[in-house]
Amino acid sequence: MPGKRARRHFSQLSEFERGLIIGMKTAGWSTCRVAGQVDRSECAVRNCWEQWTRECTHAWKTGSGTTRKTTRREDQRIVRQELVDPTVTRSTIRADVGAAIVPQTISIHLAEANFKSKHPSVHSV
């Protein structure tokens, strides 16, 4: 469609872009004009400006990630299972821990504990 900008999916505003938006809006620019200048959607510009006017900050809030699905004890059990038997599967670990989690969550917890991938590298001699 002519005249449409390509969307920038799933990319968040950088600190620099947030500063530009706040500066331009403070100078009296319209949301549409600011969006065109920084190549972002009007919605993203509006949200940034609203956060600035509401909280007087443009920084992301700390701790705004997803909530943990496992307890510390369950995390320790996941790591212990890997230590005892490095060939154990993720679904076996999930069954042993007894938590309703997906295998990807187990992989994330093992990566946090500095365990490598389940697929060992192949060394040829």
TrEMBL record:
Species this chain originates from: Trichonephila clavipes (Golden silk orbweaver)
Protein name in UniProt: Transposase
Gene3D superfamilies documented for this protein: Homeodomain-like
InterPro entries per UniProt: Homeodomain-like_sf (IPR009057)
Location relative to the cell: Nucleus
GO cellular component: nucleus
Lineage, top ranks: Eukaryota, Metazoa, Ecdysozoa, Arthropoda, Chelicerata
